[in-house]
Design a protein that fits this description.
Layout: E1 22-24, E2 34-38, H1 40-45, H2 55-61, E3 74-76, E4 79-82, E5 85-88, E6 94-101, E7 107-113, H3 130-146, E8 152-164, E9 168-178, H4 184-192, H5 196-210, H6 220-242, E10 244-245, E11 267-268, H7 292-311, H8 315-327, H9 329-345, H10 354-367, H11 372-378, H12 389-406, H13 412-419, H14 430-441, H15 446-455
Bound molecules: adenosine monophosphate and magnesium ion.
Length: about 475
């Protein structure tokens, strides 16, 4: 069947913005593209029929050797604070193909990652290795299945070329799907140049695309700030709920849409330690598990600063308004986090002692290095045994939790059923992710495909998944992740 039988419904609004927002760029062609994985469900959602053409045609489309009709490829301009320091960045190894308007009316960016050098590449080769692209595919799709807002992954194509890191690695291109790629760093980019005109255009564009209600507000900029803050508070609460450590929450890696974006050194907790850091370059724990709310607030403060001149012409007043909003983040986050904890504990009404009840469980997990995912999931299942210290400490807590569970309208079995929808059985455990990627790099996709399938259904207990629930035992050593560029 001809390639034209695919209906690519592009409508590229970002290229209608002024020149400083991007640079037109075609992807670099690759030697021997091979489709490694195509996300059939997501393709359908975007109005792309996966059966319309064969694998080699999809591979050509998703490595950039052939451009889908209607796309208008660009590299986007942005900046960002990396580990706290401002840097001018931009898509150094990504190309935005354009925006697909899906059959349901949703607008989605389609972006290649690893598609060659751009004007923003600085010293980089613009390329990506297969392992990290499959990792992003796996973890972003797992997050989606967990119900956490995230960019998604449509395809990975192996390029047939080597990329050179500390050793030669197989190269690949990931096609990422996002509500947009507007970042806190996009705003910083224009603010740093004191380019008020383009900043105003960016604010207007962002509001229309993501927060159209703000158009009606008295102060649309303040409303935008509030809405972004609200989504970040909720997002980080959801991350903590599943033990997710993003690992590199630089301001260029925080999407204004509220989606999780830029999966690099991220990983999930095995045993619970709130100070967990996985990334090998995060020496001071800036992006540690329990520091994520504070960093979200720090990033939001950078966002707020860019908006100051548009919030109010009087600088002192603008600063006062923005500071009050940023100051509200802690309360906002605590509210969201308590909601998350209550849902995980099966509590659907509120009592003043709920936060303490949850904290005692977390403290117990920390003292005994208990597995985060399994502990939450098994609260309702396992009657505590009194055969060791951990269990003797756990029993009275469990008793109080049971009593608390009874003090609500909803019946205990119904509460437990709902609680199971917030406590996954399956998360992408580090050991399994590593094993799947190592095998895939050797050309064996069996484990990767199995893992994708298991992770697509994270809340249902079923036979055959026991192996995926095993905690990772690193022999006392902490699991390490690498940026993988
Ligand atoms: P990241 O750490 O993926 O968020 O990327 C930070 C910045 O480095 C972005 O501007 C990327 O486009 C750029 N970058 C990362 N890897 C490469 C690469 N291999 N070649 C060129 N630019 C890169
Ligand atoms: Mg990034």
């Amino acid at each position: 069947m001809a390639a034209s039988s695919i209906s690519w419904n592009f409508d590229n609004s970002y290229v209608r913005l002024p020149a400083p927002f991007y640079h037109r760029h075609n992807p670099t062609t690759v030697r021997a593209p091979q489709l490694v994985v195509l996300n059939q469900g997501l393709a359908h959602q975007l109005g792309l029929d996966p059966q319309a053409v064969g694998g080699s045609q999809w591979a050509a489309f998703f490595c950039g050797n052939e451009l889908p009709p209607g796309c208008d490829p660009i590299a986007q301009a942005y900046s960002g604070c990396q580990f706290g320091s401002f840097t001018t960045l931009g898509d150094g190894r990504a190309i935005l193909l354009g925006e697909i308007v899906a059959p349901d009316g949703g607008r989605f960016d389609l972006q290649y990652k690893g598609s060659g050098r751009t004007v923003y590449s600085r010293g980089g080769d613009g390329r990506a290795a297969l392992g990290p692209m499959l990792r992003e595919y796996l973890i972003s799709e797992a997050m989606h299945a967990l119900g956490i807002p995230t960019t998604r992954s449509l395809a990975v194509v192996a390029t047939g070329e080597a990329v050179y890191r500390d050793r030669p690695l197989p190269g690949a291109v990931l096609t990422r799907v996002a509500a947009s790629h507007i970042r806190v760093g996009t705003f910083e980019h224009f603010a740093a140049k004191s380019d008020l005109e383009n900043l105003r255009i960016l604010v207007d564009y962002t509001i229309r695309r993501h927060y159209p209600d703000a158009l009606e507000a008295n102060n649309p900029c303040m409303r935008l700030l509030e809405a972004v803050l609200d989504r970040q508070a909720e997002l980080v609460a959801r991350w903590l709920g599943v033990g997710f450590v993003h690992g590199v929450m630089n301001t260029d890696n925080m999407a204004i849409s509220g989606e999780t974006i830029d999966y690099g050194p991220c990983a999930f907790l095995d045993s619970y330690d709130p100070h967990t850091v996985f990334s090998s370059i995060d020496h001071r724990g800036r992006y540690a598990f329990d520091n994520q709310p504070r960093i979200a607030q720090w990033n939001l403060a950078r966002f707020a600063e860019t908006l100051l001149p548009l919030i109010d012409p009087q600088p002192a007043l603008a600063l006062e308004m923005a500071s009050a909003m940023i100051g509200s983040f802690q309360d906002q986050f605590q509210r969201r986090w308590l909601e998350e904890l209550r849902a995980k504990l099966g509590l659907f009404n509120a009592e003043p002692e709920d936060a303490a009840l949850a904290q005692e469980l977390l403290d117990w997990m920390h003292r005994h290095s208990a597995d985060y995912t399994n502990t939450w999931r098994r609260i309702a299942d396992d009657p505590p045994r009194a055969d060791d210290i951990a269990a003797r400490e756990y029993a009275p807590w469990h008793q109080r939790w049971r009593e608390r569970l009874g003090r609500q309208e909803i019946s205990v079995p119904a509460a437990i059923e709902r609680m199971h929808r917030r406590n996954p059985v399956i998360v992408p455990r580090n050991l399994h992710v590593e094993q799947a990627l190592a095998a895939a790099e050797e050309g064996d996709l069996t484990f990767f495909e199995n893992l994708i399938q298991v992770l697509a259904d994270p809340y249902n207990e079923r036979p055959g998944i026991e192996a995926y629930r095993q905690p990772f035992d690193a022999g006392g050593k902490c699991y390490r992740t690498f940026c993988g560029t």
